[in-house]
Amino acid sequence: SRKVYLNDYKPFGWEVEQVSLTFRLSPRGTRVLSRIAFRPREGGRFFLHGEGLRLISAAIDGRTVTPEVTDEGLTCEVPDRPFLWEAEVEIAPEDNTALEGLYMSNGMFCTQCEAEGFRRITFYPDRPDVMAPFRVRIESDLPVLLSNGDPVASGKGWAEWHDPWPKPAYLFALVAGDLRAVRDSFTTRSGREIDLAVWVREGDEDRCGWALESLKASMAWDEREYGREYDLSVFNIVAVDDFNAGAMENKGLNIFNSALVLASPETATDRDFERIEAVIAHEYFHNWTGNRVTCRDWFQLCLKEGLTVYRDQQFTGDMRSAPVKRIEDAAMIRSRQFREDNGPLAHPVRPEEFIEINNFYTITVYEKGAEVVGMLHRLVGQNAWRAACDLYFERHDGQAVTIEDWLAAFRDTTGRNLTQFMRWYSQAGTPRLSVAEDWDGQTLTLTLRQHTPPTPGQQEKAPQLIPVALGLLHPSGPEILRTQIVEMTEPEEVVRYDVGALCKAAGLKTERPVVSALRNFSAPVMLEHDQSPKERAFLLRHDTDPVNRWEAGRALSRAALTAMATGGDADPQAWLEGLEAALTDETLDPAMQSLLLSLPSEDDLAQSLADAGEAPDPLAIRHAVEAMQDHMAETLEPVLTRAFEATAGTGPFRPDAAGAGRRSLHNACLTLLTRRDEGTRARETFARADNMTASLGALNALLSVGAGKDELAAFEARWQHDRLVMDKWFALQVMRASPEQATEVAERLTQHPQFAWKTPNRFRSVIGTLAGNAAGFHHPSGAAYDFFADWLLKLDPVNPQTAARMSTAFETWRRYGPERQARLRATLERIAASPGLSRDTGEMVARMLG
Ligand code: B3K
Ligand code: ZN
């Protein structure tokens, strides 16, 4: 398979002035007629992408031509002047199980073109830097026919759409089906009324309200915070059950995985509501960051994704709780992004080579990309941030641009030289930031050192610009130095604080302060800062920075758990005391209390052990976590009971942050208390539950102590006709299965009549979840590895994109001991050697084997 390199970028030799497409839809033989007006620029070899297309005819300016067609596209002699290209092709949407291009789901036609799916619809320069206005005519007996832009005209069996905004082909979309609309409207700040609609299958109409509320909130927010208004007369959202990703920002016609649109209190959890709100916002925000200004090439993916994730994070912080959101984002980077950045799949936020671009829709591009954008925001401050974003939109509206263009808007706004900052985009790997303290009774000296270990293809790393947010607390509690940003640029820097003066100013006795470093997770780095359990317990209680307060608790529980998992000396005392104080602190938000109560994931603990040079044993980790939960439940029983009762049933379900926070704490307490009461409370909760957050919380608590058989059956009986709820039912059983039984449980579920393995959501809920049950997945029998690999190989020819993504379950293989490593390597080698392996999975496996 061929590699593509950033440095090989060349613009396309022709400009596309206008695209007209006619679709004659039919499941086995859809005809696509294209009329494309080309105008020469540099010219050169005229190549149009095209895959799996049957070419019926082609003409230039009305004269038939016979282009040379290969697996990847066609080449043709073309005139050296503007010309009209016309072609007709045939495709079979019904046979398209890869869910890229035009495919079918439950009798409905839909598309997914990002990244390179349009070339499976017709011959076209399928690259993001070719932007053009589109006209689309759809012919079909189906009642609802949708495409991008504004509706132009329609009649019985046809509809026409026009999108005036030049767009790359990856933003093209078409939907045709027997769909129902739930409608609303939004008036923009300049007074234009936009028709909004969510299109769903019959029966789902009562689950669209939240998506519409979220959409209107997003539209208002983007006007208020970024001055960005919507630019078409309609905005359509379609829910589809078979979808590889979460959602897609096609211009004016967003297509969503139905799991990320449909919600009602009975069927969706608080988490689902929050995710729907965030993803609706994310796709909507792409209208400016991605669509109006797009990427020059796929290496620039973070240009739209990092920025849009950052915007949706800001939005969620504004709609809900900013500190809670920040803690969750920091936690996700530290576990999942660091895992990627420190393993064989590490790549820069802006990669420089790939075989299959779909393999680079990663947590590094998205979430680390968002961290980099956030650092930039904090470095330049709010006013310059807004001015630079305005400049970026103004300068590049209608263009396909690069990270350099993005940074130039900041350079030109602030006069700042961002050359070193650029390394955040080009260097892979997580910088290690160590903080060493020296105290002489008066002055505190901090020595900061940075160093980034090698990653695949990048041996040497240059120092990065690391904004380090620091604060100091007096050991009696008060803060003596408010958050200050040290902009570190060198491998080593020394910062001195005149603590005597700071204490004096605060009217306090001079004492050695407690350092709170990397506040608000000011940079995506691994902090190495030796602090005693006493200092951590102090920060857990007193830090003014919510992220570091949480982090102090994390550090305490992590230390205790890793010690327990390796048979070392575990002293959870400081952790438990700190937790007790947090749970009884009435000034703390329940959502925050719930976060403090959560333990690091088993995978995080495995990584911590690996970082400390030990081979983790996932079974020992599971036992340590369970022992810790028993310990927490026992020592904190009275406090947990009080918090559990205080958060019980408070009126009708509303999916807002306050309600969600209370329910989250309630469920966290329930899970622990279930270890003490034989499941009494959980059974009662399950029986009384009137919302999915409560039922699933209770079911989860029961399954995690090996109970809940009857409840599982009752749940299935009640929800068997609801595919989204059934996904939860499948996943929970695999997630909560004991290490010995996990593979068996997953295997049994694959025999369930509703195990529709070609639907990605269902595949992920069973097979994907098995990899999330770390102790089950890494059980020494090796059964899970074989089972998982067999299913990946079965899915691969059907849906390579989803198979490739799921293969990342193996990315941590090198962190384990020799026996597991040998088995994992053999499994990866078996996958790699299997005949006909897709390009997608082939690339992933080769990278993992290194
Ligand atoms: N841009 C899409 C993702 C497309 C995935 C292609 N493999 C959704 C998003 O990030 O908004
Ligand atoms: Zn996106």
UniProtKB/TrEMBL annotation:
What is a GO molecular function of this protein?
Answer: metallopeptidase activity
Aminopeptidase N-like N-terminal domain: from which residue to which, for each copy?
Answer: 98-171
Cofactor(s), names only, from the UniProt record:
Zn(2+)
Write down the PANTHER family for this protein, in alphabetical order. PUROMYCIN-SENSITIVE AMINOPEPTIDASE
- Which superkingdom, per the lineage? Bacteria
Please list the residue ranges annotated as the Peptidase M1 alanyl aminopeptidase C-terminal domain: 534-849
Coiled-coil region(s) = none
Gene name for this UniProt entry: pepN
Q: What is this protein called?
A: Aminopeptidase N
- Native organism is Histidinibacterium aquaticum
